[in-house]
Amino acid sequence: MISREDVGGVHIKYLYHCPRQLWLYLRGIRPEHLSASVRLGEAVHDTSYTRTTPIDLGAAKLDFIDGQQWVHEVKSSTRPTLADEAQGRHYCHRLHVLGIDVQGAVLHYPATRRTHRHPYTPEAAAQAEADITAVLDIAATPASPDRLARSRCRGCSFTDYCWTE
Prior knowledge:
Elements: H1 9-17, H2 19-26, H3 36-47, E1 55-56, E2 61-62, E3 64-65, E4 70-74, H4 82-97, E5 104-109, E6 114-119, H5 122-140, H6 159-163
Parallel strand pairs: 4-5
Antiparallel strand pairs: 1-2, 3-4, 5-6
Helix pairs in contact: 1-2, 1-4, 4-5
């Protein structure tokens, strides 16, 4: 179904956000285009850092890398999440596997004008490998993981799928 090389940033983000969301996404259920939150994120991305060039790694597409070898990601949320950090770590790992040394990830939050730096360390590399394995484990599961508490589903584009009885 999916190989280690096919695991991208969206998979990692969904792994941290909700395993059920990841499982559904892996099976082609993709209601993101119906979500106002997703459209807002796309608008923030399209209007922030417009002089940079995205880097397409196949399964992963990162916003840009600076001259100091830091991976930069622009986020639409107002506060950092573990999913954001994991996604940045994953991009660093993908580049490292390709033989590109990176310092780490810089996460940009334009709504609050804040940035957060996360160095790419041996511990971060090990966690990135563990995250890929976790994605593959969920992909191999025949049944959907349980849904989260409804309070954690606010703003999720999969809410209707999960909560329609």
